[in-house]
Design goal:
mainly alpha, 80% helix, 0% strand
């Protein structure tokens, strides 16, 4: 891969890390902000710090190799098809990153949480087809299933947690002060989990680009800290449109509901990261958990039109980015 193309891939990956923090991690504390358990500035600062620490911790726990990156991102077939043309792979990576960033900006503008992982997998499929490589259709099918099954599980889990909190509250074992403290802890855990999970995506892209550019394995490790810092910086700015959707538009959130939603999101993220070793969408998990906590108070407490629009955005994410990734890859190949 040419030095200029490698530099472009690295820059776009860092921009994606920044925007992932801006788009997703700030939503981790949206419930704590809405319920006034934390001031907005304090919540965003806490999320940024914990997102940074989570990203660094997650990277330290990894054995960062090209094989790891290819498995994580599902780009093994694309790598094989472009083995003799590293610049074609570079163009594909640029197209994928641009497609994901475009979708992130669009979903932020309309105030809808969405999965960066799902957007990436969809864009990778589209770019692979445009380049002429075998597409991972099984991965797309798995994403679409996860877009339905994952939120359903999160809703049920949050519902059960909320019922448990209500039972403790009736017995006067929980007070508002207890709930606010617990919600602060759970919000921090969600932010940390986001750093653990989503920092791997831009890092893996850079590792793949470096591996086909004949750089030493240690070269890609130099971006570990910049990736983590970029995510934390994005978190600190905060995606306020998405914060409003999760914290206010889905339901009138109480402190107890916020705690139930965040606890459910932490459990689902922990199972995915440590149990299944698979990427997980913190946005999907938290937003679905907010719905589940609202249902526990009564179905009328949930604004179903907003929830329906959110689910439609989730289902559209891999399909839209696949089309966009294919179009951008085609244009870049023509220009190249």
């Amino acid at each position: 891969m040419s030095p200029a193309l490698l530099a472009l891939v690295v820059v776009l990956a860092l921009v994606l890390a920044f925007y992932t923090g801006f788009h997703d991690a700030s939503s981790a504390v949206s419930t704590a902000i809405t319920t006034r358990s934390l001031k907005e500035s304090t919540a965003l600062a806490m999320a940024a710090i914990l997102n940074l620490l989570g990203a660094l911790l997650g990277m330290l726990l990894l054995t960062v190799t090209a094989d790891w990156a290819l498995r994580l991102l599902g780009l093994g077939r694309l790598m094989e098809e472009t083995s003799g043309a590293p610049d074609v792979l570079g163009a594909g990576l640029v197209a994928i990153l641009l497609a994901v960033l475009a979708w992130e900006v669009l979903t932020w503008w309309i105030g809808m949480p969405s999965s960066t992982w799902h957007a990436f997998y969809g864009a990778a499929l589209g770019a692979s087809l445009a380049i002429g490589a075998a597409a991972a259709w099984d991965r797309l099918a798995a994403i679409l299933v996860a877009s339905i099954v994952g939120p359903v599980i999160a809703v049920l889990l949050a519902y059960l947690v909320m019922q448990g909190i209500l039972a403790l509250a009736r017995n006067e074992r929980l007070r508002v002060g207890h709930l606010r403290f617990a919600q602060t802890v759970s919000a921090g855990a969600v932010a940390t989990g986001h750093g653990l999970s989503d920092s791997r995506l831009p890092l893996a892209v850079i590792v793949i680009a470096c591996s086909v550019s004949d750089l030493s394995p240690g070269a890609s490790l130099m971006v570990l800290v910049p990736v983590a810092i970029a995510m934390a910086a994005g978190t600190l700015l905060g995606g306020h449109r998405i914060i409003r959707t999760i914290g206010r538009r889905l339901t009138d959130l109480s402190t107890a509901q916020g705690l139930a939603a965040e606890s459910s999101a932490v459990i689902s993220m922990s199972v995915a990261i440590f149990g299944l070793s698979s990427p997980v969408s913190s946005s999907h998990g938290l937003a679905s958990s907010v719905v589940g906590a609202g249902v526990a108070m009564g179905p009328r407490h949930v604004r179903w039109p907003v929830a329906r629009t959110m689910v439609l955005v989730w289902l559209a994410t891999p399909l839209a980015t696949a089309v966009l990734g294919a179009a951008l890859a085609g244009v870049l190949l023509e220009l190249g």
